[in-house]
Amino acid sequence: MKKKSVPQYSFESYRPVHRQITQQGEFGYAAVDPSKYIAGFEAYSKNGIRPAFGPVKVNAYRVGFTTCGSVEVDLGLDTFIHHKGIITITAPGSIFSYRNASADYAGYYCLFEGTFLEPLLRNLDTAFPFFNAEGISSFQLSDTELDKFVKLMWEIDGEIKTDQSDKRQAVQHYLYLMLIEAKRCYERQIPQPLTAEPHHLVAVYNKLVSQHFLEKRNVADYADMMNVTPNHLNKVIKEHTSQTASSKISEMLLLEAKVRLNYTKLSVAELAYDLGFSEPSAFNRFFKKHTSITPLEYRTSA
C-alpha cells in the first residue's frame, strides 16, 4: 500500500490551529491586512495564540521565545516549561503541543518555509546547529540576548506594516540575523560534542527518534547513529528518564498516530498500514495499551 503522509499545512490552513483568528493585535500578521503578508513567512506575538493545542505537525521552520509568564510545551519526546528567555527553534516535521499557559504568558514567534532564506543561504540544517539531528532545539537566552531578539522582531513587524520597496528582502535579512544571534547564544552554552554528557546523550536520542521513528524502530539503529553500544544507550536512557529506550520509540509513534487521527481523514486501517503495523488489529492493540481507548474513540473525542 502506498503511504499517505500527514497533510502539510499551508500557513493559511494552519493559522486556525495555533491562533484565535478572531482576535486582533498590534503585532505582526494579527495587525495587518492579508494584502501585506509576505509569501513564505509569518510573524506573531503570543497575544492571540490558543492557550492549548496539539499535538500538531507543521511543515515550516519555527522560531519562538517567551518574554513573560510560562506555558508547558511538548516537543517531540521532550517536555518542558517555556518561561522568560527560553527560545525554541524547530525544523519542519516537528511535533509539538502547548498547554496550561499562564495568564501573563507573552512572547513572539515566526514561521517560515525552507525556501524563504534561499537568497542568503541554501542549507539551514548545516548552517545552524539547532537544526542538526544532534542539536538542541530549546535553550536559554540572557536578558541582553532576549532584548536583541525582541528588537529584531519589532524590526520585522515594522517592515510587514509598510509598503516600502524590498520589504521581503529586509525581512529575510532580519530573520537571518536572528538565526545568527541564536547560533551565538547556542554556542556559548551548549557543549560539544553533545554526547559527552549523559543528559545530552538523552537529548540527542530523543531528537533522533523524533526524526527517524517511522523507518527505524530498533534501539540498535540509534546506538549505531550515535556511536555507542545499545546496552550503554539503554542504560543511560533508563537512568535519566526512568523509561527504556524502546519505550521512547513507542511514545513517538503514539504521538504521530494522534496527529494523524486528529488532522487526516484516513481510516484507522489506512493509518495502521501507513505507520508500519502489520494489520489494523495490531495498531488498535498498541494504541489502546498506551491510551486505554481505541484509535476510533480517540478520533471521536478529539
From TrEMBL:
For this entry, the protein name equals Helix-turn-helix domain-containing protein
Origin: domain of life:
Bacteria
Q: Which organism is it from?
A: Mucilaginibacter jinjuensis
The answer to whether keyword DNA-binding applies is: yes
Kindly give the Gene3D superfamilies that the UniProt entry links to this protein: Homeodomain-like
Tell me the ranges covered by the HTH araC/xylS-type domain, including all copies: 203-301
Keywords associated with the record: DNA-binding, Transcription, Transcription regulation
Q: Does the keyword DNA-binding apply?
A: yes
What PROSITE patterns does UniProt report for this protein, alphabetically? HTH_ARAC_FAMILY_2
